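Notes from hallway chat w/ T.B., transcribed later so I don't forget. T.B. wanted the structure written out for a chain they're using in a teaching module, and asked if we could keep both sequence and C-alpha cells in one place. Agreed to drop them here.
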Amino acid sequence: MKAHLALAVVFLMVLVTIPASASTYWCTGTVTNLNTYSDGTITLSVPGQSPQIYLCNLTSNFGNWTPNGCKAAYALLLSAKLSGLQVEMGFNDTFTCSNPEVGAQGTGAYSVTILP
C-alpha cells in the first residue's frame, strides 16, 4: 500500500509542478487545514501564511488553475496533510508568503509540490 501511495504522490507531483523559473516566490509549510466547499472551491492553511488561501475550484477555472489541475493539487495536498509532509507552493503575484492573495478572485499560486 505504501508503494502505491508513493507512486501516486510522485505521479501527482509531475502533473502539478511547473518549472521554478516562472515563480515570483515560493512558500513552504505543513498543511494544517484543507477545505472543500459545495461550489468546488479548495482552500488551505499553512503556518506562516495568511489564515486561508483560496487555491482553486474543482468545477471551473479559478485563478491559474483548471478543474483537472485543481483535482491533482487537491490530491497532492490531501496526501501531504495526511502524511504530515511539508508542501512548497509557487506564487506568481505581488504578495508574500505571510500575505498571499486571498478571496474569490483566485490566487497567484500555480504550483504545489510535496517536499521530501
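Follow-up for T.B.: Residues 6-21 have pLDDT under 50 and may be disordered. Might be a good example for the class.
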